[in-house]
Amino acid sequence: MKIPAIKKLVESYSLPQLQEAEAALMEEQKPSIEIGGDDEGEQLTHILASIYIKEKMEQNNTPFNQALRDFSQRVRNSIG
Predict the structure, then answer these.
(1) Residue 38 near residue 46, CB atoms below 8 Å
(2) 20 with 67: CB under 8 angstroms?
(3) What is the domain range of residue 39?
(4) For labelling alongside 44, which of 5, 15, 66, 74 has CA 20 to 30 A away?
(5) Best CA proximity match to 43, nearest among 29, 61, 57
(6) Is 55 left (phi over 0), alpha (psi -120 to 50) or beta?
(7) Using an 8 Å Cβ cutoff, are 57 and 48 in contact?
(8) Around 10, how many Cα atoms within 13 Å sit in the side-chain half-sphere?
(9) By C-alpha distance, which of 33, 38, 39 is closest to 8?
(10) Burial, 64: exposed, middle or buried (Cβ in 10 Å; 0-12, 13-18, 19+)?
(11) Residue 71, pLDDT above cutoff 90
């Protein structure tokens, strides 16, 4: 997971664009937007993170850094 790639997605694309890219990746198609990452798994991680963060920012007026921390905590909890 690369924070700069996630931040770029959040800043550059709308929520519907990110969701379309997620759907394309899930169907093993090439997304219409540029997603940083070493492989499709990392790209999917970046898309999922950016969707979560963008939703949190829009719904709760949460700053990017806090939304990113919330996502990271969520990931740690699911692994731990």
Answers:
(1) no
(2) no
(3) 3-79
(4) 66
(5) 29
(6) alpha
(7) no
(8) 24
(9) 33
(10) middle
(11) yes
Q: What is the torsional sign of CA 52, 47, 15, 69?
A: positive
Question: What six digits make up the tokens of 32?
Answer: 């219409």
Q: At which residue do the structure tokens 């997605």 appear?
A: 9
pTM confidence score: 0.91
3-state helix, strand, coil in the chain (%, to 5): 75, 0, 25
Q: Identify residue 10 by its one-letter amino acid code.
A: V
Residue found under tokens 């890219």: 21
Q: Please state the domain count of the chain.
A: 1
Residue with tokens 């550059």: 12
Q: Is the dihedral of CA 76, 5, 46, 37 positive or negative?
A: negative
- In the chain, the amino acid numbered 30 is K
Q: What confidence category does residue 75 fall into, taking pLDDT thresholds of 50, 70 and 90?
A: confident
